[in-house]
Amino acid sequence: QVQLKESGPGLVKPSETLSLTCTVSSGSISSDSSSSTYYWGWIRQPPGEGLEWIGSIYYNGSTYYTPSLKSRVTMSVDTSKNQFSLNLSSVTASDTAVYYCARHVVEHQQLIFWFDPWGQGTLVTVSS
Amino acid sequence: DIQMTQSPSSLSASVGARVTITCRASQSIITYLNWYQLKPGKAPKLLIYAASTLQSGVPSRFSGSGSGTDFTLTISSLQPEDFATYYCQESYSVPPTFGQGTKVQIK
After folding, report:
1. Maximum CA pair distance of chain A?
2. In whole angstroms, what is the distance from residue A66 CA to residue A75 CA?
3. Nearest chain B Cα to A123, which residue?
4. Which of A2, A35, A82, B44 is most enclosed, with most CB atoms within 10 A?
């Protein structure tokens, strides 16, 4: 059973860069299944608000970012450590959120995708 | 981006009740619709994908239906562990978008 866990600072100052890492255990970040391709994604939830997909990365480094954050987001993957990371630059208070990492599963037959499993999330507060 | 609208935003129900949550897409998404359960401090859980396929390990009291723009998540007999917030998510386009959530509370 693949498990994911987020780690990183819980407090970031405005204008600085938010950096989080997701460690994948009980499964390889580089392995797909016969029926699905696995990307690795980040999703956030500001306090009292809904969920927002930030972006996803494949183990070869291919990335897909949501347009509204694209200019500030960088994702990377370290297959040797079975980890992937998120950097969000020039943060403001509106970037305060619970940040989740999740496996982004793309099913080959229908090309439908979903997020499963997820990490339990980490709260990042942007404040001076 | 595709807009996903859930209703109601919250509901109160008793253990054993049948609960239905609706999700409407701003355009047809065929059956490219997933449902998740979120509880505070816990990892979100995928319940249903492709509108009606139950994820492995999810109790059969959960079911999903719909196609095009209108979808429903039904809990046939609400259990204490089902009190949570539920989100729909479309996977028809990139970026994928989520509904605003439906909080299911104890009556």
Report:
1. 48
2. 12
3. B41
4. B44
Shortest alpha-carbon distance between residue B94 and chain A (Å): 8
Contact A42, A99 (CB under 8 A): yes
For the beta carbon of residue B56, count every other beta carbon within 10 angstroms: 7
Q: Do A115 and B36 touch (CB under 8 A)?
A: yes
Would you write out chain A's pLDDT as a tens digit for each of its 128 residues?
Answer: 999 999 999 999 999 999 999 999 999 999 888 889 999 999 999 999 999 999 999 999 999 999 999 999 999 999 999 999 999 999 999 999 999 999 999 988 888 999 999 999 999 999 99
Rounded Cα–Cα distance for residues A103 and A114 (Å): 8
Distance CA A73, CA A66 (A): 9
Query: pLDDT tens digits, residue range B27-70?
Result: 999 999 999 999 999 999 999 999 999 999 999 999 999 999 99
**Nearest residue in chain A measured CA to CA from B55:** A116
* CA atoms of A111 and B91, how far apart (whole Å): 9
Does the beta carbon of B49 lie under 8 angstroms from any beta carbon of chain A? yes
**Tokens 């049948």 correspond to what residue?**
B18
Instruction: Specify whether the CB–CB gap between A76 and A62 falls below 8 A.
Output: no
